[in-house]
Amino acid sequence: MADNEQKALQLVAEAEKKLTAPNGFFGKLFGGGNNRLEEAVECYQRAANLFKMGKNWNQAGKCFVEAANLHARAGSKHDAATNYVDASNCYKKTEIQESVNSLLKAIEIYTDMGRFTMAAKHHQTIAELYEGEANDLQRSVQHYEQAADYFKGEESTSSANKCMLKVAQYAAQLEDYEKAIQIYEEVASSCLDSSLLKYSAKEYFFRAALCHLSVDLLNAQHAIEKYAQQYPAFQDQREYKLVKTLCEHLEESNIEGFTDAIKDYDSISRLDQWYTTILLRIKKQYNEDPDLR
Known about the structure:
By secondary structure, the protein is mainly alpha-helical. It is built from 15 helices and no strands. The longest helix is centred in the first third of the chain and has 22 residues, at 32-53. 40% of the residues are buried.
């Protein structure tokens, strides 16, 4: 591995030498400058791969960025974008912000080329980076929204909805319930237009109802009846019945009944972390202020 790194360093030095070599009359006449640029790019790419073999991710990322910059100088947009993505994949293992920065450069190129699906996918990757180790939900939401916008523009409705559902999930976690409700209702309505996706609507109506319940009990009661009118089969679902029961217990300030209803549901259909977080907030909210109606 040390041998690979030594070779990589030699290639970097060789690339730098090619870029700083004087460009005389014959070089200009026969395009020697362009040849040296191409050779320097090749050196950086080879060095990057050697650094990757040695798991020196930062150095590998830097070499890919250098190669990308040179491609951009030469007007090779596609190659530049590809190398920025390569750099991002390396930085992803050690430097999240550098990984993001490299992807943003690739996105700038792809949008300039009119390749919005590629730009959308990379915004989605950035969103995933921010929701992961970086744990920055606000920025994650921004990039999921941008990805969804580009996907919609390219008629990729399924991909756009997938991103918007992430926005709704995190909006609710950040207590922006109105935004979450709007998205869940829109996605649920779009599911009803598809015979294949219709059954998925119950989950999104359920999530929207819980967001309503986080804000106002009366609104939640009106919302689930509205959802049942849109999707009559929803009334037969356990999710609809649970929300109805929770509303009844909260109306009576019966926190114990509220808790038991959730336990009964969870014993059959496991509630994930998002649901438990929202339900615990609702319980705490009404427990502290039983007159909240």
